Amino acid sequence: MLPLMPDPWRSLFEVARYAPSPHNVQPWKLTILDAQRADLYVDRARTLPAEDKTGSFIISAMAMFAEGLRMVAMNHGCHLKVDATLPDLTQRYARYATLKLQPGATPPSPPIPTNSSFCAAHPGYRRDRI
């Protein structure tokens, strides 16, 4: 159990969902397994195969999203372990990584900047991908 956040994945996702992605496609889908684990998938319906013939845009987008989650987790005193795999892009939802949260990180001082000011300034702006 993570004492710092009652609903850890939703708390992290509230900020990390604003992570940039090439062509603004936000190809991620997060499946929550329990309070400490989630699977991160590439949603192929949100990719641009004609523009991204090598898959490099997708891999960079997924890494940016995972890094956004890691930074927010650090601000909440948690470590985020990302066990990434090479996604099988022949599937609609291709697993990119298993994510594991562990309490015990020392939150940085000052906190790592996130887009929380943007979130506060634009309350109707949503990118729900959970």
Describe this protein's structure.
This protein is an alpha+beta fold and 130 residues long. It has a single domain, classed as 3-Layer(aba) Sandwich (NADH Oxidase). The protein has three helices and four strands; from the N terminus they run αββαββα. Strands 1-2-4-3 form a four-stranded antiparallel β-sheet, with helices on one face. Strand 3 and strand 4 form a beta hairpin. Helix 1 packs across helix 2. The longest helix has 20 residues. It is globular. It starts with 7 loop residues before the first helix and ends in a 9-residue tail after the last helix. The model has no long low-confidence stretch (mean pLDDT 82).
Instruction: Please write the CATH class name.
Output: Alpha Beta
How many H/I helices? 3
Overall pLDDT confidence: 82
Tally of discrete structural domains: 1
| CATH topological fold name | NADH Oxidase
Order of helices and strands: HEEHEEH
User: How is the biggest beta sheet arranged?
Assistant: 4 strands, antiparallel
Number of strands: 4
Structural class: alpha+beta
pLDDT under 50 segments (min length 5)? none
Could you tell me how far the N terminus lies from the C terminus, measured between alpha carbons in angstroms? 20 Å
Q: Can you identify the CATH superfamily?
A: NADH Oxidase
Q: What value does the Rg take, in angstroms?
A: 15 Å
